């Protein structure tokens, strides 16, 4: 093999490892949502309480995302991915062994704190190994880790919970994260970057000073993540309780929606590479998300079976912007600030996502699913004018 081909193989292998590590973390982060039907029926928790328990990993995430980003900026991606994955596995095993729901919630919180490691480190690993004209596509591929993790969790966790209980279901994310830790330890190579003493001044400068560009992208992403969280968290229980579907059938629909969501993220990333623009596609996706959620609310309110198809469509559209925002932020922040900038992005998104579960669970309990879908349609509509017009600098 030539030196160039070896470099190409290495870049794509790093993408594959980043994708696998982040998928494993997302099985843990989002898999707790698929315990809601079992917690609701067997443990007697209402939707608000079950939604709060399922949000514990996301609450844990927001406590440590920026801190993990700082470690990535200072130490590197391999260390963070390896240690973080091992800590997720340990927390998941502990949650599976816990007797009380309080202890389960505590370990889910700790696991979420560990899972924050993969978000900043895997994004940095991908951006660091690929040139600007490929970053939209490859970051779109990397961002499919979230719907893939949700889909894999939906395929396995509800069945385990229904047949063997909550503890057995938690063993699944524990095992996949343990395997991920071993792979990262053996195979991850940190991307090349110059020593801080030799780096250009603009790469060392704080990208938040003198510009609101990153802050506006963070704000837009917060508004767009809420309908995504609503669809992810409640589609399974909505299909089972309101439509009478079995856990297996409802889980299969969620899995299919997440698989289509992976294609949406990749297509959005490829689109941005062809345009040479990260932010313009986000504006179009925000408008489409508002429309799809509004149509879902209307169809569910009138009792139309079209609502099932629309929830799949909404699942695809609402996840399509994430890779674009992550790529833009990494390019603007540069190699010495992108860990913290991506940590800030993840902190704001996951805080909004974690808050959405109990808040919208309570809204569903009071006003029903159509009201919740309609409320979540307003937020992407508000995001459209907030999307910055100027393109990020590619580094």
From TrEMBL:
Can you provide one Gene Ontology molecular function annotated for this UniProt record?
transmembrane transporter activity
Q: Which domain of life is it from?
A: Bacteria
Keywords (A to Z) from UniProt = Membrane, Transmembrane, Transmembrane helix
What stretch or stretches form a coiled coil here? none
Domain named Major facilitator superfamily (MFS) profile is located at 1-395
What is one Pfam family matched by this protein? MFS_1
Q: Where in the cell is it found?
A: Cell membrane
Q: Which InterPro entries match?
A: MFS, MFS-Transporter, MFS_dom, MFS_trans_sf
As for membrane topology, the entry says: Multi-pass membrane protein
| Residues spanning the membrane | 12-36, 48-72, 79-98, 104-127, 139-157, 169-189, 213-239, 245-270, 282-302, 308-330, 351-372
Keyword Nucleotidyltransferase attached: no
A single GO CC term for this protein reads: plasma membrane
Which PROSITE patterns did the record assign? MFS (PS50850)
Return the protein name.
Sugar phosphate permease
This protein's species is: Mycolicibacterium rutilum (Mycobacterium rutilum)
């Amino acid at each position: 093999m030539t030196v160039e081909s070896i470099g190409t193989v290495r870049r794509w292998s790093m993408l594959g490892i980043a994708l696998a590590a982040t998928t494993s973390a997302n099985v843990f982060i989002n898999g707790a949502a698929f315990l809601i039907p079992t917690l609701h029926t067997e443990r007697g928790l209402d939707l608000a309480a079950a939604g709060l328990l399922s949000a514990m990993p996301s609450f844990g995430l927001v406590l440590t995302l920026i801190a993990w980003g700082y470690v990535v900026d200072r130490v590197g991606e391999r260390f963070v991915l390896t240690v973080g994955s091992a800590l997720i596995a340990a927390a998941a095993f502990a949650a599976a062994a816990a007797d009380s729901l309080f202890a389960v919630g505590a370990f889910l919180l700790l696991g979420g704190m560990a899972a924050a490691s993969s978000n900043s480190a895997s994004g940095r690993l991908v951006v660091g190994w690929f040139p600007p004209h490929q970053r939209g596509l490859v970051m779109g591929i990397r961002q499919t880790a979230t719907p893939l993790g949700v889909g894999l969790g939906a395929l396995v966790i509800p069945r385990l919970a229904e047949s063997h209980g909550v503890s057995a279901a938690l063993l699944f994310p524990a095992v996949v994260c343990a395997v991920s830790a071993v792979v990262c330890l053996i195979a991850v190579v940190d991307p090349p970057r110059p020593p801080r003493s030799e780096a250009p001044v603009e790469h060392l400068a704080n990208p938040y000073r003198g510009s609101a560009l990153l802050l506006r992208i963070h704000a837009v992403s917060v508004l767009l993540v809420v309908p995504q969280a609503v669809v992810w968290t409640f589609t399974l229980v909505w299909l089972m309780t309101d439509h009478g579907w079995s856990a297996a059938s409802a889980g299969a629909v969620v899995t299919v929606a997440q698989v289509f969501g992976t294609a949406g993220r990749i297509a959005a990333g490829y689109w941005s590479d062809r345009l040479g623009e990260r932010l313009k596609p986000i504006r179009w996706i925000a408008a489409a998300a508002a429309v799809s959620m509004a149509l879902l609310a209307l169809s569910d309110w009138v009792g139309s079976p079209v609502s099932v198809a629309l929830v799949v469509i909404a699942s695809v559209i609402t996840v399509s912007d994430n890779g674009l925002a992550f790529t833009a932020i990494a390019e603007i922040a540069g190699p010495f600030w992108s860990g913290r900038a991506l940590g800030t992005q993840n902190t704001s998104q996951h805080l909004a996502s974690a808050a959405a579960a109990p808040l919208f669970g309570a809204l569903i309990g009071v006003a029903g699913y159509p009201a919740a879908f309609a409320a979540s349609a307003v937020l992407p509509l508000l995001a459209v004018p907030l999307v910055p017009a100027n393109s990020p600098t590619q580094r």
